[in-house]
Amino acid sequence: MIQQTPVMRICVSCRKTYDRKYLIKVTNDHKQGILLQKGMGRSAYICKSKNCYTDSKIIKKLQKALRTSLEPEFIDIFKKEITSYNDYSNKGI
Ligand SMILES: [Zn+2]
What we know:
The chain has helices spanning 50-53, 58-66, 72-85, and strands at residues 8-10, 17-19, 23-29, 33-36, 41-47. The protein is α+β, with helices and mostly antiparallel strands. Strand 3 and strand 4 form a beta hairpin.
């Protein structure tokens, strides 16, 4: 039986550690620039608690963690993505 060790990452907002699969991943991909949930390169993670992904400083925190500036196009994609998480907010995820 293969035991899978969860990969733990820190949320850029609350600084708590979570299993990577429960986090929103933002990657500064070498070739494609900033990507959500995919890509290879420096990554930052945000947990799916509403306080974190709706943090008014979340874009600034991401920019600092990724050491780059985020394009308005990416911010749009990010905001659409987090809108879909609102469904979970009452279930405490
Ligand atoms: Zn968090």
